Amino acid sequence: MGPIMRKSLLLAASLAVLALSAAPVLSQQTATTQADMEKTFDTFISSAEMDGWMKKMAAEPNHVGSPHDKANAEDTLARFKAWGWDAHIEEFQVLYPTPLKVQLDLVSPKKFSATLTEKPVPGDATSSRTKAQLPAYVAFQGDGDVTAPIVYVNYGMPDDYKALERMGVDVKGKIVIARYGQGWRGLKPKLAQDHGAVGCIIFSDPRDDGYSVDDAYPKGASRPAQGFQRGSVADMPLYPGDPLTPGYGATKDAPRLKREEAQTLLKIPVLPISYGDAEKFLGAMEGNVVPPNWRGGMPITYHVGGTDAAKAHLVVKSEWSLKTAYNVVAKMEGSQYPDQWVMRGNHHDGWVFGASDPISGHIAMMAEAKAIGELAKTGWRPKRTLVYLSWDAEEPMLLGSTEWVETHAAELKQKGLIYINTDGNGRGFLGVDGNHAFQNFVGKVSADVTDPQTGVSVGQRQRAGAMVVGATPGASERSKAVAKAAADGKDIPLDPLGSGSDYSSFVQHLGVAAMNVGYGGEGDSGGVYHSAYDTYEHHSKFVDPGFAYAAVLAKTTGRMVLRISETDLPVQRYGDFADTVSTYLDEVKTLATNKREAQVAQAKIIAADGFRLSDDPKQTSGPPTPLKVVPFFNFAPLDNALVRLKASAATYDKTLAAKGAGLSADVKGKLVALAGKTEQAMTVEPGLPGGRGWYKNMIYAPGRFTGYGAKTLPGVREAIEDERWNDAETYVGLTAKAINAYADSLDQGVALMGGPSK
Amino acid sequence: MGPIMRKSLLLAASLAVLALSAAPVLSQQTATTQADMEKTFDTFISSAEMDGWMKKMAAEPNHVGSPHDKANAEDTLARFKAWGWDAHIEEFQVLYPTPLKVQLDLVSPKKFSATLTEKPVPGDATSSRTKAQLPAYVAFQGDGDVTAPIVYVNYGMPDDYKALERMGVDVKGKIVIARYGQGWRGLKPKLAQDHGAVGCIIFSDPRDDGYSVDDAYPKGASRPAQGFQRGSVADMPLYPGDPLTPGYGATKDAPRLKREEAQTLLKIPVLPISYGDAEKFLGAMEGNVVPPNWRGGMPITYHVGGTDAAKAHLVVKSEWSLKTAYNVVAKMEGSQYPDQWVMRGNHHDGWVFGASDPISGHIAMMAEAKAIGELAKTGWRPKRTLVYLSWDAEEPMLLGSTEWVETHAAELKQKGLIYINTDGNGRGFLGVDGNHAFQNFVGKVSADVTDPQTGVSVGQRQRAGAMVVGATPGASERSKAVAKAAADGKDIPLDPLGSGSDYSSFVQHLGVAAMNVGYGGEGDSGGVYHSAYDTYEHHSKFVDPGFAYAAVLAKTTGRMVLRISETDLPVQRYGDFADTVSTYLDEVKTLATNKREAQVAQAKIIAADGFRLSDDPKQTSGPPTPLKVVPFFNFAPLDNALVRLKASAATYDKTLAAKGAGLSADVKGKLVALAGKTEQAMTVEPGLPGGRGWYKNMIYAPGRFTGYGAKTLPGVREAIEDERWNDAETYVGLTAKAINAYADSLDQGVALMGGPSK
Question: Following DSSP, what letter does each residue of B180-217 receive, concatenated?
Answer without folding.
Answer: S-SS-TTHHHHHHHHTT-SEEEEE--HHHHSTTTSPBT
